[in-house]
Amino acid sequence: MKREIPILxxxxxxxLVTLAFFTRGENVAAGIETHWSKAVxxxxxxxxxxxxxxxxxxxxxxxxxxxxxxxxGGGADAFYKTVMLIALFGYLGVGLGEYHGWWSFAGExxxxxxxxxxxxxxxxxxxxxxxxxxxxIASAAFRAFRARSLESTLLLVAGAIVMLGQVPVGDQITDGxxxxxxxxxxxxxNGAGQKAIIIGATLGVLATGxxxxxxxxxxxxxx
Amino acid sequence: MASLxxxxxxxxxxxxxxxxxxxxxxxxxxxxxxxxxVHNYYDTIEALPEGSIxxxxxxxxxxxxxxxxxxxxxxxxxLFTKKLNIVNVATWPAAPPYTVSEFGRIAPQYGAxxxxxxxxxxxxxxxxxxxxxxxQSLASAYPKDDVDETPYGDLPLLERVxxxxxxxxxxxxxxxxxxxxxxxxxxxxxxxxxxxxxxxxAVQTPDLFAFYPxxxxxxxxxxxxATQYLQLVDEATGGAVEKERLVxxxxxxxxxxxxxxxxxLIIVGNLIYFIGRRGA
Lengths: 223, 280
Fold this sequence. Notes:
The structure holds 2 protein chains of 2 kinds. Chain A has helices spanning 4-21, 36-73, 78-100, 113-143, 150-165, 168-174, 177-213. Chain A is an all-alpha fold. Chain B folds into 2 domains: 2-26 and 256-279; 36-240, 3-Layer(aba) Sandwich (Rossmann fold). In chain B, strands 3-2-1-4-5-6 form a 6-stranded parallel beta sheet, sandwiched between helices. Chain B contains 12 helices and 6 strands. The termini of chain B are close together. By secondary structure, chain B is of the alpha/beta class. At the A-B interface, helix 2, helix 4, helix 5, helix 6 and helix 7 of A face helix 2, helix 4, helix 5, helix 6 and helix 12 of B.
């Protein structure tokens, strides 16, 4: 039963959601009511959202469990794990407290502490992390981007054209050709490749979906 | 040659920093030619009749804000200039504070009343499942709003929208990755026949060419697209986004310098590689 019930639930859910795709919606003017499968589909979607929300809590619990274990072990990352836990529960506490009116750190007319932390810490930190990419890409461009084969040469040339075509100076030094080459690469080469990949991947998803709905694919049960 | 090949990469970091900071201080970018994709984004909004309802989804976070926030700001200005109504949603948890700050700043400039001209419904977890839920029943996905937890039916704008996507005339996403434009196209665009526009990060822009123009009518690709759009909106609004336009035009000059430096590094790195290989 531990195997059969999950498979039965999966098959039923899959069939109902698929059925809802092909059934009628409400049309008041024509006097048509919503098909029952659409109502079931809506309910299942609500359940899925609840699962996602619960997954957040499970994720936090797991993060705390693993971090506490590492802090107790006194490893190299213990300090960073401690900072992470303080940040996690500190921000959670500030947010919950301000939401429920338990406490407020902001004066009259000032933005809530939750938003202050977001503006003054979270935004600069994330922006800094992302900005570091420019330095790493520059270093990688010098050390790793080598024309070792025909494929890597094509990749390098395409990359250089895309970088030139994306910025105004590219057109200035190539007399307007950089953006035209970029458009050709994006629309014809990239567009055709993307479509082929998407069609292939979608067929794969369809096949896997069918296998799950029909109960053939059971890897999600750790089988 | 060996010293050139193995030289300290911190020199590269330093030169890159000098280029970025130097151009930020001295550089002033000029006007960019506007691409077809940006024109289509702009024209699709222009073609909507007054009072139409647009769903604007903030699907980004601070890491991608440098590319997407200017587009978000310009889009809000553009929509309010055209007297269009906005239903704001978010599928990225870090996006709603941007909604609070941008709408709080821009809506009063146009006399746009909360609940009448715009609503903020906030973050919905669930990625593409959340999008599917929004498409099927907006009222179920968001029983209350994100500003003061007003019930869905008590907000006049949402009453006009009704329960599903039939009441939405256009969907615009500020898309930083997953979930984003590709999931909106799959979950909502095709199923409910809602036209979609997008502003995307540079990384995601190539993905869109497979869907343009049939499933995505127009898009702002990265900072370049956002700058071109800011130019159009700035003209249309009589300078409402002048500050953002000037900042973005300067950013394009900075990006030009950084891109040229990277291309130069690729060339020099390969020259050293080939000369070294010949020597060996």
